Amino acid sequence: SLYNGASYQNTDGRKVLYLNGSLHSYAETPALPIRAISFSIMCWIKVLSLPSNLPVYIYSDWSEPHQFRIFIQRSYLICANLRKRGGLDRVYLCAGKIIPSKWMHVALTWSREKKEGILYIDGIIQGCWCYAINAAFSVITHDERLLCSNQSRLRKKLVS
């Protein structure tokens, strides 16, 4: 279902969801039991002009407090947020600036077994957040990858 100015349009030879920037313009998608499964959420986005009111939600759920969000935040960074019960952040990553009028592929993967969230932009890992059992949250973004296990953590510089 589409609401408040949301529509489907043909752009660049593809049918796309167009959100016209009006307040509360959105589309509904089927719900998933994200607290009980591993999952990936991905989408292609094309921001026609930089928004003046931030944050701008790209993909989010409606629960209170929200369980997950992919959004545009300060300095026009693409962010991903995944929460555990009670509203505490389990994953919070921001990376990859929005480039107006350019298609960008954004993906968030969550491994329930590894308790690891990874943010990809255009197929490149931009950040990884691992929540190890009996350990605090840990985050590495941009050019480092956090490798996680229940026993240890290791930072490894990505080689380009």
Largest sheet: 5 strands, antiparallel
Ranges with pLDDT <50 over ≥5 residues?
133-160
> What fraction strand?
over 45%
Assembly context of the chains: single chain
The value of Rg in angstroms is: 16 Å
Structural class: mainly beta
Overall 3D form:
globular
The total strand number stands at: 15
Number of helices: 0
Mean pLDDT: 77
Distance between the termini: 42 Å
Report strand order across the widest sheet.
5-10-11-12-13
Helix content range: under 10%
- Order of helical and strand elements: EEEEEEEEEEEEEEE
InterPro entries: ConA-like_dom_sf
Protein name: LamG domain-containing protein
Provide a compact summary of the structure.
The chain is an all-beta fold and 160 residues long. Helices cover 0% and strands 53% of the residues.
Characterization of this structure:
This is LamG domain-containing protein. It comes from Pocillopora meandrina. InterPro entries: ConA-like_dom_sf. With 160 residues, this protein is mainly β. It is 0% helix and 53% strand. It has no helices and 15 strands. The strands form five sheets. Strands 5-10-11-12-13 form a five-stranded antiparallel sheet, with no helix packed on it. It has a four-stranded antiparallel sheet with strand order 6-7-8-9, with no helix packed on it. Strands 1-4 form a two-stranded antiparallel ribbon. It is globular, with a radius of gyration of 16 Å. It starts with a strand and ends with a strand.
